[in-house]
Automatic annotation (TrEMBL):
GO terms for molecular function: tRNA pseudouridine(55) synthase activity. NCBIfam families: TruB. Residues 232-285 form the tRNA pseudouridine synthase II TruB subfamily 2 C-terminal domain. The active site is at D40. The gene is truB. Its EC number is 5.4.99.25. It is an enzyme of class 5 (isomerase). Keywords: Isomerase, tRNA processing. SUPFAM superfamilies: Pseudouridine synthase, PUA domain-like. Belongs to the pseudouridine synthase TruB family. Type 1 subfamily. It comes from Nocardioides plantarum. HAMAP family: TruB_bact. It comes from the Bacteria. It catalyses: uridine(55) in tRNA = pseudouridine(55) in tRNA. This is tRNA pseudouridine synthase B.
Length: 286
């Protein structure tokens, strides 16, 4: 069986994140594989998976910021806010022609910073124990409440007629489809997403990602210790502290935030967080 660690996949379009997990399970020889946040079938790019005990890192990785390149198509509204949905409205040509590049750029500036965003109705958010997208497929009306998210950067890379190319760096839980929908609404012509590529999850970017074909030829993981150092603040412990951490005891050492702690030999032991002028265990990995 493959050693525990992370696998950074460059997901292709046309398959689900679960399809990728199933493929990696076969390659790794274990069913204990999970992902740090899904990508829609249409989307491509960085999908971080955990193998064996590294799956316990995934919940913390899901909270890190993400980066995307996306293409927005103005003038057309769809049921899913992306190209996979049915068209429900098309703007008049005269209205679309009135949307200048300056107006597009100005409208998108309002989506930088902390914003209240209504997720797309076909999201994976659970409503009374059932995924929102499943409720939509079953013909139900889904009304999701707005959630506070943060868009750290939104760069307009090009505007060519109705097509707008953007790069976004944002908090976990931000829906790029919703930005496409909302900016189209603000401009009075509607909009949806036609392409989405995730370029980074936390410190893991496309340079670290491998295709499924590459993994089939040479399946390797990012060792759990390397993954922890790349993702979190790190603290190297002395022998006495390492003994305490192995059994989950609190440390007298103060920490600034969620921190990966390591034994003197470099082994990753646990994640700790500040508590009462010291620190306490969040998750122990030994």
């Amino acid at each position: 069986m493959t050693a525990p660690g992370l696998v950074v996949v460059d997901k292709p379009s046309g398959i689900t994140s679960h399809d990728v997990v199933a493929r990696v399970r076969r390659l790794a020889g274990t069913r204990k594989v999970g992902h740090a946040g899904t990508l829609d079938p249409m989307a491509t790019g960085v999908l971080v998976l955990g193998v064996d005990r590294a799956t316990r890192l995934l919940g913390h990785l899901m909270l890190t910021e993400k980066q995307y390149d996306a293409t927005i198509r103005l003038g057309v509204t769809t049921t899913t806010d992306d190209a996979e949905g049915e068209v429900v409205a098309t703007a008049a040509a005269a209205d679309l022609e009135a949307v200048t590049e300056d107006r597009v750029r100005a409208a998108l500036t309002s989506y930088v910073g902390e914003i209240d965003q209504v997720p797309t109705a076909v999201s994976a958010i659970k409503v009374d124990g059932k995924r929102a997208y499943q409720r939509v497929r079953d013909g139900e009306e889904v009304d999701l409440p707005a959630r506070r998210v943060t868009v750290h950067d939104l760069t307009v890379r090009a505007v060519a007629g109705a097509e707008v190319q953007v790069s976004v760096r944002c908090s976990s839980g931000t829906y790029i489809r919703a930005i496409a929908r909302d900016v189209g609404r603000d401009l009075g012509v509607g909009g949806h997403l036609t392409a989405l590529r995730r370029t980074a999850v936390g410190s893991f970017d496309l340079a670290a990602a491998r295709t499924l074909d590459q993994l089939a030829d040479d399946f390797v993981t990012v060792p759990i210790a390397d993954a922890a150092r790349a993702t979190f603040a790190a603290a190297d412990l002395d022998d006495a502290e390492a003994v305490d951490v192995r059994v989950g005891r609190r440390l007298e050492r103060p920490l600034d935030g969620l921190t990966a702690v390591f034994a003197p030999d470099g082994a990753f032991l646990a994640l700790y967080e500040p508590a009462d002028e010291g620190s306490r265990a969040v998750a122990v990995f030994v």
